[in-house]
Amino acid sequence: MTMTPPVGIHILSSLYSCEKVNSLDKKALSEKITQLLHDNQLTKLGEFYHEFEGGGVTALIALAESHLALHTWPELDYLTLEIYVCNYSRDNSEAAEKVHSGLVSFLEPGRIETHRVHR
Amino acid sequence: MTMTPPVGIHILSSLYSCEKVNSLDKKALSEKITQLLHDNQLTKLGEFYHEFEGGGVTALIALAESHLALHTWPELDYLTLEIYVCNYSRDNSEAAEKVHSGLVSFLEPGRIETHRVHR
Fold it and tell me: What is the ipTM of this complex?
């Protein structure tokens, strides 16, 4: 197949009224992300987690297919979540949607706003 | 100041006809990113670089203010670039715009397409 850019999809969500961020454990989050990536045949190349003093977690996961990122603001019951996959070797759009919806189910927000950017 | 979500800006660009990705050196790229972040008072927490066999680089930079990411497809003269900053402690929007434009100048694309998402 001949590819021309744009080659992928970037799903960006804001999760509001998400009380779960207050008790969000880095280990539980990491396990959930790793499991969802594995179940959907996406390949993790590396990861970086940071816990802020006073609360808040940043997670950056490098994928062979691009990346996943998550940032929490416990004091606002708020977090942002994104997954970006290229569809270069095969179409990973469905896998990205499944990882995204799996994480949203896990995080249980009161309200969610999602943008999809083709790039 | 009282903050309510959304708390930041995410600038996402696609850079087309970017011949420079063919000779893009991880070290030069890392130095440029680090310099631009420093010049604009953004704080790097950690970074992950990956060079793909046969070409292509992924760069994920965790910031105290959120993240920066870059993915290249040398065979398509194409790359995607993004910077996401929260404006929680102070307004980092101008700093994000400057880092973004500094990287675009450095990468010299023939054409660029940019989306800005408030989140």
Answer: 0.92
